[in-house]
Specification:
single chain; about 260 residues; alpha/beta; Spore Coat Polysaccharide Biosynthesis Protein SpsA, Chain A; nine-stranded mixed β-sheet; two-stranded antiparallel ribbon; 11 strands
Length: about 260
């Protein structure tokens, strides 16, 4: 089996809720650059951005990144990365959303290692524990899993529902990062939109409805998906704090040396 991996970042300029968000400035860089640099720091053998607009291509080339133009007619980012991956000599494809500027490098690496170490897994993703009160927003996707950590369902609703008198259980926030076998990715995009997918507007439900099992890797790390200008402001604050913390750590090491 070919264990080479490619991290591909779909970057659609015409985002419905926040047009042009992948190029929105974040701490002096376009947001897509932060995502690209995280992917580049991972163990992925290939890193590229799959764009649909020349403005994205130009911005990526300006900071020295690799980008490919894909069709503007793709219905989803998954279709976009499948086109970009077609000619790559990689069996493992990592789909990193272009609006996750704080995605931890460790999460990317862990998904790659998961796929390399478990050839029976067709598709993987990441979930993090979160308090119920923090997940009421329908933009925050929730996931429930079985006893073997395979996804049972993803929803914009707060699941599992806690009935009065019921016993609470962990609530998992889903991160929009995926790993696929290349053949699984190609099969997935060949399938028609499923009924649950059309209802919730969550394309991962198409996989579950068609018998593709999705393994959920649990993480206690933190990331922020940028869906709105307000999210961008939150990401800016957290990113500036991260940069400051890293600078202080470098200064401490320099002082010790």
């Amino acid at each position: 089996m070919n264990n080479r991996s490619a991290a591909i970042i779909p970057a659609r300029f015409a985002s419905t809720r926040f047009p042009g968000k992948v190029l929105a400035e974040l701490c002096g860089k376009p947001m897509i650059q932060w995502v690209y640099e995280k992917a580049l720091a991972s163990v992925a053998d290939e890193v590229m951005i799959a764009a649909d607009d020349q403005r994205v291509i130009d911005a990526v080339e300006a900071f020295g990144g690799k980008a490919v133009m894909t069709s503007a007619n793709h219905p989803s980012g998954t279709d976009r990365i499948c086109e970009a991956a077609a000619e790559l000599d990689c069996d493992i494809i990592i789909n990193i959303q272009g609006d996750e500027p704080l995605i931890p490098v460790e999460a990317i690496n862990d998904l790659i290692v998961l796929m390399q170490s478990n050839p029976e897994i067709e598709m993987g993703t990441v979930g993090v524990p979160a308090p119920r009160k923090a997940l009421a927003d329908p933009n925050k996707v929730k996931v429930v899993v079985d006893n073997f950590d395979f996804a049972l369902y993803f929803s914009r609703a707060l699941i599992p529902f806690l009935r009065e008198g019921g016993t609470d259980t962990a609530v998992l926030l889903h991160w929009g990062i995926y790993s696929y076998r290349k053949a699984t990715l190609e099969h997935f995009v060949s399938l028609p939109e499923s009924s649950l997918e059309a209802c919730e507007k969550l394309e991962q439900l198409r996989a579950l409805e068609n018998g593709i099992k999705i393994y959920l890797m649990r993480s206690n790390l933190e990331s922020i998906g940028v869906d709105t200008p307000e999210d961008l402001e939150i990401a800016e604050v957290k990113l500036r704090q991260t940069i400051q913390d890293e600078e202080e750590m470098r200064n401490e090491r320099h002082t010790i040396l």
